[in-house]
Amino acid sequence: MKKTLTLLIALLLILSTLIGCANSQSNNGVSALASPGEAEQDVTYGDVSQSFRRSLWDFAGKTSPSVLSGERDKNSLYSPMSLYYALAMLEAGAAGQTKTDLQDFLSMTEVLDTSRNLRTLYALMTKEEEGIQEQIANALWIRQDLVGEGGKKVKQDWLDQLKNEFYASAFAVDFQDPKTAPKMSEWVAEQTRGKIKPEIDLNDPLLLLVLMNTVYFKANWDTAFDPAHTVKDVFHGMDLDISDVPYLQGAFMSQALLDDHYTAARLSLTEGSIRFVLPEEGMDPEDLLKDPHLLTDLFEREWKNVSLNIALPKFSYKTKVDLLKEMEAIGLTEIVTGSPNFSNMLTTDAEVSAISQETFIALDEKGVEAAAYTEIQIRETGMLEPTEQLTLELNRPFLYVISDGAGTPLFVGVVRNPHAE
């Protein structure tokens, strides 16, 4: 009997080993190192400091002009929050002057308590309720030989910080395996509800790490547009008129901001809002964005109550942009390339080789749906009552900003051609 029992136990151990190997193979060679830590509970929008919100709008104002100056017949879209989270994870792994420079670029100070505020925002930006869906996710993909004993390594303290403070998933992978890039793309598609499925290039033989952030946001209008009132009309593009553009039309109790250079109106969502900014005749959105304080002013200035009549074109489009290249002029490239110090992250010299972002937006009678994906590749170096009436016809290129219930600038975009995809 004892011999039989021993034989059965041995067979079970062999079977479980085989099953484990099969599961590893079915996971396309991806080994999960860490799952996100548990997000904070019972947080409110008031737990995010007003000074930190302002620093996020400052960051959006500083970085948006570099990204939104697109071709004259193309639309643009950028997520400051997605880039901010990705760069904040990079900052956590930096040391010395590189850390100081990244903190300056992100406007991080001890007074702002950035780490606490980001943890609170993460909890607030992860919800699914009637009329509102919001999801943020972070991930780290590590070359598999950097994990374990001996040789060049990714540092455990940094991994723990990403897990516990950024709620990031961590995976060990073989970047040369052709199955790895599709697996990473599937992760992005899952986090963005299928709106973004990037083609990920892992051909760099010196690639060490890939940092990812995704933001997904979907909200209904607080007061929906009546589809029966949608009409087709002309949109006056920068170089030509575009016919048969469907316009949403409605009258709302709203808020407005009247400036010498633009007229802005804010429409409420089930949570958050969209600020629409129409430049004065003879000006383009790029002219407005030359003012680094534009977006901060949209956040801080006092808006007046109005009875708003608005004509808003329906639009849907996707974008992809090389952020490392576009933000070279404002100093980002110099901070993270050349000879940066990422010694809190790795035991080998490394630099950022790519920072890219893909976005999606769709706006119609029901509301708005938007998604963003930011990727950072790190390679080894060889070394009240209304007071007045306002009519706003967004029938020429305009700017818009989507913010969530926490008051953070999730997306900033420019519509130059409502028909462009």
What does this structure look like?
The chain is an alpha+beta fold. Helices cover 29% and strands 34% of the residues. The protein has eleven helices and 17 strands. The strands form two sheets. Strands 2, 7, 8, 9, 10, 11, 15, 16 and 17 form a nine-stranded mixed β-sheet that branches. Strands 1, 3, 4, 5, 6, 12, 13 and 14 form an eight-stranded mixed β-sheet that branches. It is globular, with a radius of gyration of 24 Å.
Mean pLDDT: 88
The rounded Rg comes to 24 Å
Order of helices and strands: HEHEHHHEEHEHEEEEEHHEEHHEEEEE
Beta fraction of the residues?
25-35%
User: Ranges with pLDDT <50 over ≥5 residues?
Assistant: 1-26
Short summary:
The chain has 421 residues and is an alpha+beta fold. Helices cover 29% and strands 34% of the residues. It has 11 helices and 17 strands.
Which helices and strands occur, and which strands form pairs?
Elements: H1 2-26, E1 31-34, H2 50-68, E2 76-78, H3 80-92, H4 96-105, H5 114-124, E3 127-129, E4 132-143, H6 156-165, E5 168-173, H7 180-191, E6 207-220, E7 231-236, E8 241-258, E9 262-268, E10 273-279, H8 285-289, H9 294-300, E11 304-313, E12 315-322, H10 323-326, H11 332-336, E13 350-363, E14 367-380, E15 389-393, E16 398-403, E17 409-415
Parallel strand pairs: 4-5, 11-15
Antiparallel strand pairs: 1-5, 2-17, 3-4, 4-6, 6-14, 7-8, 8-9, 8-11, 9-10, 10-16, 12-13, 13-14, 16-17
Helix pairs in contact: 2-9, 3-4
